[in-house]
Write a structure and sequence with these properties.
33% helix, single chain, 11 strands
């Protein structure tokens, strides 16, 4: 196990631990986080950085549209080596008399988790993420699990048997969301806690929106859509807004955009010739329209196939 961790660490080190999210996964962090909400934000009262993992909002199909699943450990390593260490420095600056704690308080939110998400692809991805986290075996200070339903309780009974007693002692599990939030406010100052959990800090959407946001966009929405022509993504624009619409996918197809019911354009999506880490085409991004003016109601739909 130690040898495997050393080999994994050396692999990540060769890439300088991926200084940017784009280098880690090949897409903007603001896009990846809407499908894989894993990030550091704020510090607990004891100075430990807060690590949020919104497991119930993870969308494996969406991740596969924006990056290779094999690249997710790169993102986790980037987060630990750059975002975690940045938060440690913030804690030091806030209280220079306090010993820096290179541990984190993890908030694991299972709200929205469905048993159908626990498939082979998900488990293989979690296993690969372990290659990054195993490099830091003593990083966990405390873990607070929120919205733990019956399914988690069933699996936890089995998982706990494989954990050391000192690790189990660090884990708190709450099925009642309000009680879980109350516990977080005991561990974290309200100003440091995410607004989603009753804090006065930024919300998840605000944090995701500024991750790798080079365009200066004031807001962002990312939704998962099936290429069947029957479903559509609708976004309302105010009078002073302009929208850029991009599609991330691995598939060939036609995408149509309407504004207020009037056709704006139709674009054919063409995957690159190269393959990804599997036999499937690499995920790619196509910008459909830039600076579409408001006010209006944008509607995006897609059908499979497309031109050759």
């Amino acid at each position: 196990m130690i040898q495997e961790s050393l080999e994994a660490f050396q692999h990540f080190k060769q890439h300088d631990f991926y200084p940017t999210i784009e280098e880690a996964v090949g897409c903007p962090g603001s896009v990846l986080m809407t499908q894989y909400p894993y990030f550091f934000s704020g510090n607990a009262k004891n100075g430990c950085p807060l690590n949020y993992q919104m497991i119930g909002r993870v969308k494996m199909e969406g991740i596969a549209c924006v990056t290779e699943l094999d690249y997710i450990p790169n993102y986790v390593m980037h987060s630990i080596m750059y975002e975690f260490t940045r938060q440690v420095k913030v804690a030091q600056e806030q209280d220079t008399t306090r010993l820096a704690r290179c541990e984190c308080v993890a908030v694991i939110d299972l709200k929205g988790l469905d048993t159908s998400q626990l498939n082979k692809t998900t488990l293989n991805t979690l296993k690969s993420i372990g290659a990054a986290t195993s490099c830091f075996p003593e990083m966990l200070n405390r873990m607070v699990v929120l919205n733990a339903g019956y399914t988690f309780s069933f699996f936890w009974t089995m998982i706990k048997a494989f954990l050391e007693a000192k690790t189990v002692a660090k884990i708190e599990i709450y099925s009642n969301e309000n009680k879980g939030k109350q516990r977080l406010l005991e561990l974290v100052e309200k100003s440091e806690l995410l607004a989603d959990y009753g804090g006065a800090g930024p919300s998840f959407d605000e944090i995701a929106g500024r991750k790798g946001n080079q365009s200066g966009a004031t807001r962002q929405t990312a939704q998962l859509m099936t290429m069947n022509g029957a479903s559509a993504i609708v976004v309302e624009l105010t009078e002073n807004e302009r929208a850029t619409v991009s599609v991330y996918t691995r598939s060939k197809g036609d995408v149509s955009l309407q504004n207020g019911g009037s056709p704006v354009m139709t674009t054919t999506l063409k995957p690159p010739d190269s393959r990804g880490t599997t036999e499937e085409p690499k995920p790619f991004c196509t910008e459909i329209v830039a600076n579409e003016p408001g006010p209006g109601k944008l509607s995006v739909s897609a059908t499979p196939g497309g031109g050759s």
